[in-house]
Amino acid sequence: MVDEKAKRKRLNLDLTPDAYDLLQKLAEESGKNMADVLRTGLALYGIAQEESKKGRSLGVVEGEKVVKEIVTT
């Protein structure tokens, strides 16, 4: 059995101060660490991109109304 942690890759990332502050805020509010927040964001971006290829979009829905659409490029 291969240790999952041993398979991980390390990444060095430069962020603007605003992006770093947002990442830190999201981590604090969610009770997760910054790496977990980035992994979740990456997973959500992957879903959005997959759906975009199918002509679909991801969005935030309130009742029956889309209040925010998530767009990938």
Task: Summarize this structure as a short list of keywords or feature phrases.
73 residues, alpha+beta, two-stranded antiparallel sheet, 2 strands
Describe this protein's structure:
This protein has 73 residues and is an alpha+beta fold. The chain has one domain (15-70). 52% of the residues lie in helices and 15% in strands. The protein has 3 helices and 2 strands, in the order H-H-H-E-E. It has helices at 4-7, 17-30, 34-53; strands at 58-62, 65-70. Strands 1-2 form a two-stranded antiparallel sheet. A hairpin with a 2-residue loop joins strand 1 and strand 2. The radius of gyration is 16 Å and the shape is extended. The termini are far apart. The mean pLDDT is 92.
Short structural summary:
Helices cover 52% and strands 15% of the residues. By secondary structure, the protein is α+β, with helices and mostly antiparallel strands.
Report the count of strand segments. Answer: 2
What's the average pLDDT? 92
Contiguous uncertain segments of 5+ residues: none
The helix content, as a percent range, equals: 40-55%
Shape: extended
How is the largest sheet built, in terms of strand order?
1-2
Supply the number of helical segments. 3
Alpha carbon gap, first and last residue: 38 Å
Strands, helices and their partners?
Blueprint: H1 4-7, H2 17-30, H3 34-53, E1 58-62, E2 65-70
Antiparallel strand pairs: 1-2
Helix pairs in contact: 2-3
